[in-house]
Inverse folding.
């Protein structure tokens, strides 16, 4: 997913924070746009890109 995001957005900064418990959160412009814990699932292909594009508008 990191490679896909970097291909889509040139200037993206991605921070992987190692931990346990299966947490997968995506924050864009200081706003939580995806939470695996809340939704109880991993994002679908392109879902994060779509969420980022929606948050930019």
């Amino acid at each position: 997913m990191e490679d896909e995001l970097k291909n889509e957005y040139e200037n993206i900064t991605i921070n992987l924070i190692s931990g346990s418990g299966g947490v997968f959160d995506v924050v864009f412009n200081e706003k939580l746009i995806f939470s695996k814990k809340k939704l109880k699932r991993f994002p679908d292909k392109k879902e994060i890109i779509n969420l980022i594009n929606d948050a930019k508008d």
In short: Strands lie at 25-28, 31-35. The chain is about 35% helix and 15% strand.
